[in-house]
Amino acid sequence: MIAGHINPGDLIVFITLLNKVAEPFNGITQTYSNFQRSLRSANDLLLLIDEPEENYEIGESVSLPINDIWFDNVSFGYREIPVLNNVSFKIKGGSTVALVGPSGGGKSTLVKLLYKFYEPTSGEISINNALINSYNITSLRNAMSIVSQDIFIFDGTVRENLVLGREGVSDDDIINALKYSESYDFVMKLPSGLESHLGERGVKLSQGQKQRLSIARSIIKKANIIILDEPTSALDVETEYLFQQNIAAWATGCTKLIIAHRLTTIRDADYVLFLDDGTIVEQGSPYDLIKQENGKFKEYWEKQFLFQEGN
Length: 311
What we know:
The chain has helices at residues 8-50, 107-114, 137-142, 158-163, 171-180, 184-188, 207-221, 237-250, 286-290, 296-303; strands at 68-78, 81-92, 96-100, 122-127, 130-131, 144-147, 225-229, 255-260, 271-276, 279-284. The chain is α/β, with parallel strands linked by helices. It has 2 domains: 1-51; 68-303, 3-Layer(aba) Sandwich (Rossmann fold), CATH 3.40.50. It starts with 7 loop residues before the first helix and ends in an 8-residue tail after the last helix.
């Protein structure tokens, strides 16, 4: 164009045609990339379909109440990546045990093994002096209730999210659960109270409100083993304090496992297991561990400004 062989219009036409010619080649590359991703997803799906179906009714029913839970030299790994290494401990029925430690230490994995989502690579897990493999999965999971850090709220009413299809749940049970979880006030302020629709994944609620409903859902189940996985991570200080006061009322006699990074949650725990890199490095009551010189739990405690000399 500068030499005068073509005019500016010819240059624009050339650039436009060049883009049109290149577009199919770009599309071929994108199609190949999508095909590779689809092939990998289809392979994973077929592997899942080929997995043998679990029979939830084989085995005995769990006898209640729960007298003890025992992990005996339990090891586990995800696809050959070790997560737990020869973990052993015993939990007395009715006690409160806190699982503390850095992220990735294996705390949540212990709970998944207890729920039989996975099988240990070695070692044994027992409840009431019987291996959990001797119990049917339905009764085992019915004996437990979990407040997970990954909260799921269904696209339904408050009542439907709390009851989850259970029969025989009275309004009194629901109201008591809402009060114990400090959810009653905000639920009653919703346009239709218990019949208010919460939207997909509870879009109409704050994270703290979702967490409180999750706690109320756990209370309604009336399980014998309560697992609290970061149960107050989205709560303000005042609500967290009230929840700790209420838990003694609704979880009396229950065995409680609390996974916590915020150590305010475990002040009243009977026993603490500190996990680091898949092993239990410290165990004992909170106040015994605080007194250990150069202890990992003491270091955590002091960093969160909870330690006071002489307490």
